[in-house]
Write a structure and sequence with these properties.
Helix 1 (31-40) packs across helix 15 (349-390), helix 7 runs antiparallel to helix 10 (187-216) and helix 13 runs antiparallel to helix 15 (349-390). The chain is built from 22 helices and 9 strands. It is an alpha/beta fold and 628 residues long. Residues 1-26, 600-604 and 613-628 have low confidence and may be disordered. The chain folds into 2 domains: 19-390, ABC transporter transmembrane region fold (Up-down Bundle), CATH 1.20.1560; 411-625, 3-Layer(aba) Sandwich (Rossmann fold). The two termini are 21 Å apart.
């Protein structure tokens, strides 16, 4: 067996291959693209549609009740108590007031005004209780709805990340993936209110405000309608610039996350080389760059708010000037017959307050809409980064009509296999070999030179597919087998000794969750891990910290080996399984593996692959079978 010693792409100085690396000087999203991104969130939102409808309906009912009680409060406090003007017949009927005292008079008497104090207080209390209770209840209801939606997106995002080809993960930044999964995906939750719910509410309040104000004055309604035009033009002009700034901000924070992750993961190297001061200095500089990008984007967003406030402020001054003049002249309201029942026949202090509350609500809704639009640009950028991952198609998929792998009976064969991570730079070229069932096959080569030993085993697992040739199990091309059945019959102890923040037992049976404690202990004994596990405070129930940092490299390697053994699969791959062990432990492990394989596996046709470095001096040195 021969292999070309070409450097593995894991050592290449390459940038992430995902779509995040765009030109920071241009905006990749058009106005239509923003709406398209928001529309793509619909599959994640649809399962919660009935809850969203219930949320909107309850909010609408509470809003109508609030507007009604608020109008009554204005009529009692402003028209009645403060202005001493007669109340409308509808208000008097609702509170069972005597019309001869409260309606059919020119002015309310002092006694009548004092009598309105308690009804006013009671109305305010009811309005407050409804508002506070409904507000808290709806808030927690909305949190439950939104987090359910966010979880759906995160599950699909991590599933798509796991489905990507190894070259993607070799060159992509871990911190960027974490940022997209944790921060960018949260935008699906953030957009539900500002993109789907709040625009409907704001637009409803705006249009409703125009209709109500029209009953007082068509001129006011026209001013409210015209005010929206410059705001639309402003939003259209500012949007591309906001999106560009928000993308720069997110990519700066993503890069910072990657750098922090790298620093924490490499803390031993940092301390061993006394580089703490340099790392601290760099940490002072990098957040400043991210902060600067975030600051510029927020300044632009606030500038949009200031300009919209100025436009709305001008409209408000015009509205108030007209209303003040008409109140001074006691001009009749436009829909006098309709508003008379509520006590608003002419423009006066009470009418000014009632109409003013409605136009302020309408202009406030306009401000809310333009602010939502500004924030929506950031959400669109964040979700766009999520969909960049979701649009990546898995490189390794089941072929149509793929069959389930039958029990291993004969051999695994490599027929003229060639493979490269990067076009024109082959890692494997024309490899042919046969590993017969019931044997232990070693692939010999210097460690860490990128000569393809680990790559060959990755191809057997279909973590990547060959460029040329084929790999077959019992004569069947592994590409014609289902991925699930293929990987179910293969165990692997990888070079990377990855352990999780769980107990020793759960780490060993991570890939075989149904294994019992006896199976776990037996696997640990084969891997020479049982002795040091017994010295841990709680034995196999001892929990690890993050990445099991309290264990030595050799201890971690033995636990990873035990994890592969406990699966008891027909094919066992050991990728440099003893590289971190001392010579005596290494020989013991190899002897244990040979003894374990004979009764447990070789009699059933089990095949073991071992990936050994040249530092292990086996004789005769021939690719093929390990000596007994």
């Amino acid at each position: 067996m021969s292999e070309n010693a070409v450097a593995s792409p894991a050592h290449e100085d390459a940038s992430p291959v995902d779509a995040a690396n765009i030109d920071p000087g241009r905006d990749d999203l058009s106005l239509g693209g923003v709406f398209k991104i928001f529309w793509r969130t619909w599959p994640f939102i649809r399962p919660s549609l009935k809850h969203l409808i219930a949320f909107v309906a309850i909010s609408g009912i509470i809003g109508v009740i609030g507007v009604g009680l608020g109008g009554l409060l204005v009529a009692l406090a402003t028209t009645g108590i403060m202005s001493a003007d007669p109340l409308g017949s509808a208000v008097a009927a609702l509170y069972d007031f005597d019309p001869s005292v409260y309606v059919n008079v020119d002015k309310l008497s002092d006694d009548a005004r004092r009598a309105l104090a308690w009804p006013t207080v009671n109305t305010a209390i009811v309005l407050t209780l409804i508002g506070v209770t409904a507000g808290f209840s709806l808030y927690y209801y909305s949190i439950w709805i939104f987090q359910s939606i966010n979880q759906r997106m995160r599950v699909q995002l991590i599933d798509r990340l796991q489905a990507q080809f190894l070259a993607y993960h070799a060159r992509a930044e871990t911190g960027d993936a974490i940022y997209r999964l944790h921060q960018d995906s949260a935008m699906v939750t953030a957009i539900i209110r500002p993109v789907f719910l709040e625009p409907i509410m704001f637009l409803g309040r705006y249009l409703g405000g125009i209709v109500i104000v029209m009953a007082f004055s068509p001129q006011h309604a026209l001013i409210l309608g015209v005010t929206s035009l410059p705001l639309i033009l402003l939003g259209r002009y500012v949007s591309p610039r906001l999106r560009l700034m928000f993308r720069t901000t997110r990519e700066s924070n993503s890069a910072l996350t990657s750098w922090i992750q790298e620093s924490v993961q490499g803390i031993r190297v940092v301390k061993a080389t006394a580089s703490e001061a340099d790392r601290t200095d760099e940490f002072e500089r990098r957040p400043l760059r991210a902060l600067g990008a975030a600051f510029r984007s927020r300044v632009a967003l606030n500038l949009l708010g200031i300009l919209s406030f100025a436009i709305i402020g001008i409209a408000t001054i015009v509205l108030q000037s007209y209303a003040a003049w008409w109140s001074h002249q006691e001009t009749s309201v436009f829909a006098r017959d309709l508003l008379l029942a509520f006590g608003f026949a002419v423009w006066n202090f009470g009418t000014f307050g009632a109409a003013g509350s409605r136009w302020r609500d309408a202009t406030g809704s306009l401000r809310g809409l333009i602010n939502l639009w500004g924030r929506a640009q950031d959400m669109a950028v964040g979700l766009g980064r999520v969909f960049e991952i979701m649009d990546l198609e898995p490189d390794i998929r089941d072929r149509h009509g793929a069959s389930v792998l039958a029990p291993l009976a004969e051999a695994v064969t490599f027929d003229d296999v060639s493979f490269s991570y990067i076009a024109g730079k082959p890692v494997l070229n024309g490899i042919s070999a046969r590993a017969t069932a019931g044997t232990i096959t070693a692939i010999i080569g210097p460690t860490g030179t990128g000569n393809g030993k680990s790559t060959l085993m990755s191809l057997l697992l279909r973590l990547a597919d060959v460029d040329e040739g084929r790999i077959a199990i019992d004569g069947t091309d592994i590409r014609d087998l289902t991925i699930a059945s293929l990987r179910a019959c293969i165990s692997i102890a990888m070079q990377e000794n990855i352990l999780f923040s769980d107990t020793v037992c759960e780490n060993i049976r991570y890939a075989a969750p149904n294994a019992n404690l006896a199976d776990v202990i037996a696997a640990a004994r084969v891997a020479c891990a049982d002795e040091f596990v017994g010295e841990l405070p709680d034995g196999y129930d001892t929990p690890f910290g993050e990445r099991a940092s309290r264990l030595s490299t050799g201890q971690r390697q033995r636990l990873v080996l035990a994890r592969a053994i406990v699966r008891d699969t027909p094919i066992l791959i050991l990728d440099e399984p003893t590289s971190a062990l001392d010579a005596r432990t290494e020989l013991t492990v190899l002897s244990n593996l040979k003894d374990w394989g004979k009764p447990q596996g070789l009699r059933r046709g089990t095949l073991h692959f071992s990936d050994y470095a040249s530092a292990v001096d086996y004789s005769p040195r021939q690719p093929g079978h390990l000596p007994d």
